[in-house]
Amino acid sequence: MTVDWSHTITLVAEPRSVGEARDFICVHLLAHHLSHLVDDVRLVVSELTTNAVAHAGTPFVLTLSSSGGITHVEVRDGSGSPVTPRTPDALDTAGRGLLIVGSLSQAWGSTTDGLGFKSVWASFGAD
C-alpha cells in the first residue's frame, strides 16, 4: 500500500487530548482539501480517542493518512485489551461510540499486537 500522505500526533491520556485530536484532524483534512470529511472524521476520532483515554489510560498515537483516495484514521494505545462493541439499551448513557464509528465510516476494525498495543482504525471514502 502506497501512502499518499500521513500525519501523526502523540497525546496523553487526559480529556483535553480529545479536543486536541479533533483540532489535529480538522487542520490536516482542510490542508488536504477534504473539508467534506471534517464532520464525520472529527466525530469518529472523538469517539476513538475518548475510548483510549477512558479505557486504556495510556498515551496514544493518532494517525491520519490517505492512500488511493481512502482517508484512514488510527488510534494506537498501550492496552492490549480487545475492543468489544456494546449494544446499549435505549436509556443507557454510554456504549454508543463504536456504533457511531461504524455508521460514519466506510469500514473500521481493531488489532492487537504481541507487544501489548491495540489499534482501532476507521476508513472514509473519497466521495
From TrEMBL:
One of its GO terms (molecular function) is ATP binding. Keywords: ATP-binding, Kinase, Nucleotide-binding, Serine/threonine-protein kinase, Transferase. Transmembrane segments: none annotated. This is ATP-binding protein. The keyword Amino-acid biosynthesis does not apply. SUPFAM superfamilies: ATPase domain of HSP90 chaperone/DNA topoisomerase II/histidine kinase (SSF55874). Residues 12-107 form the Histidine kinase/HSP90-like ATPase domain. The keyword Amino-acid biosynthesis does not apply.
